[in-house]
């Protein structure tokens, strides 16, 4: 018996959200605020899974993986975490690889371990080359009232071949089907960031943060769905000038259909992040940031395990600090192979 469409969609979306969360969220935190996210959440990652059959779900241990290579053009290469933008455009080769292991001892209990590597190599501005290694582990248990989970992410970023940032995130989550078409997920996280190879006489940006996020997915008659997320983060840095309270909202609509009998998935997303930094009385400069990011993407499955991906995104990063006040447009074309 085939898995119901809503169940297949939920399983696919939760996995894609988790994958994108640690890839995109860590990558954005590490270097490029406008790189493919969540966005993160995903992270938001760039991994897309086909729906699994009932027999496959019963397997105690399963493996999956993917490899991606693409060519991108960036209108304004930047390092968001250092409040730096080059005001110069450049092209880059983007490559990604991921391996995932799923262990499911019972129908209600599932565990996942994943490792990934993302590299961005620019043609001219090699000082902005990024290497990002991410490890993640999660466990989930389905109870009658909700699916409860715990997760851990560890990301190590290199900038121009040198250690740049170590990012760790610990969290708990709870998810529940609401009615016949909606799925609600709430998570809370502790975040730790440590910057490496800091130049002399520059501020210490190491920080700890508490974050809360809620996601609501609504599934329509077909397999298209809408997502809305509310998020809050309070970050405490060693240098009070970088303390901030952040609030935001994510919106996304995904529409899958077929072209020449091949699956094509279109997505439109918008992210808003508002940050209020420490006031002058608290040792800061009263800084305020409003970050807007619009993304459109298309994934076309030319074969069962091969997809062509076309994406574009525009970021408007408004800030009262000059180095953090800029616009950026990224366009990318690539191919993804997965199993």
In the CATH hierarchy, the third-tier topology is known as Porin
User: What is the domain total for the residues?
Assistant: 1
- The CATH top-level class label: Mainly Beta
Q: What number is the mean pLDDT?
A: 85
How many beta-strand runs? 16
SS-derived structural category:
mainly beta
Low-confidence segments, given as residue ranges, are 11-57
Radius of gyration: 20 Å
Essential attributes:
16 strands; 14-stranded antiparallel barrel; single chain; two-stranded antiparallel ribbon; Porin; mainly beta; 339 residues; globular
Written overview of the protein:
The structure is a single chain. With 339 residues, this protein is mostly beta strands. The protein has helices at residues 5-30, 54-57, and strands at residues 61-74, 78-79, 84-85, 90-103, 109-122, 130-142, 147-159, 162-178, 182-195, 207-219, 225-237, 244-259, 262-277, 288-303, 306-319, 326-338. The protein is globular, with a radius of gyration of 20 Å. The chain has two helices and 16 strands. It has one domain (54-338): Porin, CATH 2.40.160. It starts with a helix and ends with a strand. Residues 1-39 form the signal peptide. Keywords: Signal. It comes from Alteromonas gracilis. This is Beta-barrel porin 2.
């Amino acid at each position: 018996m085939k898995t119901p469409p809503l169940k297949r969609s939920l399983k696919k979306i939760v996995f894609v959200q988790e994958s994108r969360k640690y890839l995109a969220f860590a990558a954005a935190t590490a270097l490029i605020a406008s790189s493919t996210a969540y966005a993160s959440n995903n992270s938001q990652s760039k991994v897309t899974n086909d729906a699994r059959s009932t027999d496959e779900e019963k397997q105690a241990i399963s493996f999956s993986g993917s490899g991606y290579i693409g060519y991108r053009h960036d209108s304004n290469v930047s390092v968001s975490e250092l409040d730096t933008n080059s005001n110069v455009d450049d092209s880059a080769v983007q490559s990604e690889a991921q391996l995932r292991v799923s262990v499911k001892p019972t129908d209600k209990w599932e565990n996942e371990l994943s490792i990934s590597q993302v590299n961005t190599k620019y043609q001219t501005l090699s000082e902005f080359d990024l290497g990002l290694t991410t490890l993640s582990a999660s466990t989930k248990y389905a109870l009658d009232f909700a699916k409860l989970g715990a997760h851990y992410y560890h990301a190590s970023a290199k900038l121009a071949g040198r250690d740049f940032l170590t990012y760790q995130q610990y969290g708990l989550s709870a998810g529940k089907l609401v009615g016949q078409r909606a799925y609600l997920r709430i998570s809370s996280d502790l975040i730790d960031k440590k910057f490496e190879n800091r130049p002399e006489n520059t501020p210490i940006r190491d920080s700890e943060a508490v974050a809360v996020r809620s996601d609501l997915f609504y599934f329509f008659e077909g397999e298209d769905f809408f997502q809305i997320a509310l998020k809050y983060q309070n970050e405490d840095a060693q240098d009070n000038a970088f303390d901030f309270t952040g609030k935001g909202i994510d919106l996304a609509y995904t529409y899958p259909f077929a072209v020449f009998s091949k699956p094509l998935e279109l997505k439109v997303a918008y992210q808003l992040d508002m940050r209020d930094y420490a006031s002058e009385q608290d040792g800061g400069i009263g800084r305020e940031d409003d970050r807007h990011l619009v993304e459109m993407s298309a994934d076309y499955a030319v074969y069962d395990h091969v997809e062509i991906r076309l994406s574009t995104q525009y970021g408007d990063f408004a800030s009262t600090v000059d180095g953090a006040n800029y616009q950026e447009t990224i366009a990318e074309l690539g191919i993804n192979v997965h199993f």
